[in-house]
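Field reference: sequence -> structure
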Amino acid sequence: MLKMKKIERPLSPHLQVYSPLINMVMSIVHRITGSLLYFGTAILMVWLLCIASGEAAYDTFQAISNSFIGTVVLIGYTWALIHHMLGGIRHLIWDTGSGFEIENINRLAWGTLIGSVLLTIIFWILNYTLS
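Structure field:
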C-alpha cells in the first residue's frame, strides 16, 4: 500500500495566505469600529446620567473628558462613529447592486478611510472653535 504524505494546510486561509488589501482591511476595521461603538455608547450613557444627576456629576465628567486621555477617547469614539457610518453607506451602495468592480471597491474603501479621518478632524476643529 502506498503511503501518502500529508500536507499541512491551514483550515481556513487567512492573513498568513493572503496579503492584506484595502478592502480586507476596511472590512476588519468596520467590525472593530462596530465593537468600539458599543463601549462609546456606554460613555454616552454615563454622560447623560451625569447630566441628569446634577452639576457636580456633570463637572466631574467634564473634568475627565477634558483631560488628555478623555479627549483621545472622545476623538477615537467620534472617528469610530463616522467610520462605521461611512462603511454602512458603502455597504448600502453594494446592497443596490452597484460598485462591485474592483476599482470601485477600492475607491469606496479609500473614501471610507480618508473621509472618516477628514470628517473627524473637521468635527473637532469646529468643536474647539465654536466652544
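Note: The chain has one domain: 26-130.
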